[in-house]
Each structure stands twice: as structure tokens, then as C-alpha cells.
């Protein structure tokens, strides 16, 4: 799949949220969407990233943005993760990694000389009309939420 870039239409999705509801791209039309893909609940980097996005949620809201995290974990895992870390942001379950794949956030990774398939930590700023404003690939968790917020401003 070709890599998403500025101006591309954001791929549609329909995923179960930690709230038990099904959420789609259309649900966020009229707002900017920060859609970030992360590998796994309750791992150090993913926890750092979620907490940082959560801390900045009010500032993002001031910019007309909604923050949504996506990982292969189940909605139940997301509920426990949110409760444990007092998170208010919406987390979506993508157990088949289909959404991650169409966004280019699932693919070949290398770690300690081994190659494997996995979630590529990525964030997409999607405009009110459903087009990609900016794509961040292979991001480092720490400080990323602040970097995305600066890009918005």
C-alpha cells in the first residue's frame, strides 16, 4: 500500500472503542482528528505516549482536535489500560491490524537484527474534511504528543 501523505483522503475505518461503541472516521467529521497507532497497552513507550496525549487533551481540544489511539489490543484491554492510567482519550481496538495496515502503520520492523511484522508507531493529523494534513511515521513515544501539538499550531 502506498504511504499516506498530506492531501490524501484518510482511509475509512470502523472499530470498537473502549466505550463498547463502534467508531468510524465519519464520526469525527467536522473536527480535526489525531489518530495515533501504538503497539500494545501497558508497555513503557505506549503508556508514556498515551499519558502525554492525555495530559495535552485540553490543548488539543482548543485547537478543534479529538485524540484517538488505535492498537491491536481488545476493547477490554483498552478499558483496563485507561482505568489504570486515568486516561480520558478514546482507544480503538484493531485486533486484525486491518486499520493499521491501510494507514501504513503495520509492516516490517527490525529489532536487534531480527525482522518481523508489527505496529509501526505512527500518528496522522486528519483535517475536518477527512484529508491527511500530516503523517508522522516511526515516532519516538516520549515528547511526541507535544511535537504533534506544535505542528498543529
Describe the model.
This protein has 153 residues and is α+β, with helices and mostly antiparallel strands. It has helices spanning 44-55, 57-62, 75-85, 98-102, 144-152; strands spanning 14-17, 22-24, 32-37, 65-71, 90-93, 106-111, 114-119, 122-126, 132-136. It has a single domain (14-152), classed as 3-Layer(aba) Sandwich (Glutaredoxin), CATH 3.40.30. 28% of the residues lie in helices and 30% in strands.
Large-scale geometry: globular
Total helical segments: 5
Distance between the termini: 30 Å
Please give the number of β-strands: 9
Low-confidence stretches: none
**Structural class, from helix and strand content?**
alpha+beta
User: For the record, what CATH class applies?
Assistant: Alpha Beta
Tell me what the CATH architecture is.
3-Layer(aba) Sandwich
Biggest β-sheet: count, sense, barrel?
7 strands, mixed
Strand content: 25-35%
Could you say what the CATH topology is called?
Glutaredoxin
Helical content stands at 25-40%
**Number of domains in the coordinates?**
1
Biggest sheet, strands in spatial order? Answer: 2-1-5-4-3-8-9
| Radius of gyration, in angstroms, nearest whole number | 14 Å
Query: CATH superfamily, called what?
Result: Glutaredoxin
Average pLDDT over all residues: 93
Provide the succession of SSEs.
EEEHHEHEHEEEEH
Amino acid at each position: 500500500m502506498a504511504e499516506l501523505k498530506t492531501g490524501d483522503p484518510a482511509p475509512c475505518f470502523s472499530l470498537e472503542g473502549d466505550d463498547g461503541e463502534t467508531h468510524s472516521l465519519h464520526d469525527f467529521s467536522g473536527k480535526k482528528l489525531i489518530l495515533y497507532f501504538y503497539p500494545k497497552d501497558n508497555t513503557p513507550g505506549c503508556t508514556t505516549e498515551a499519558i502525554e496525549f492525555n495530559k495535552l487533551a485540553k490543548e488539543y481540544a482548543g485547537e478543534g482536535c479529538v485524540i484517538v489511539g488505535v492498537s491491536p489490543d481488545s476493547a477490554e484491554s483498552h478499558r483496563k489500560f485507561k482505568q489504570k492510567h486515568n486516561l480520558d482519550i478514546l482507544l480503538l481496538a484493531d485486533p486484525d491490524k486491518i486499520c493499521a495496515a491501510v494507514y501504513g502503520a503495520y509492516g516490517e520492523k527490525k529489532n536487534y537484527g531480527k525482522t518481523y511484522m508489527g505496529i509501526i508507531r505512527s500518528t496522522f493529523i486528519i483535517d475536518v474534511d477527512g484529508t491527511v494534513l500530516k503523517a508522522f511515521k516511526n515516532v519516538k513515544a516520549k515528547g511526541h504528543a507535544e511535537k504533534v501539538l506544535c505542528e498543529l499550531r
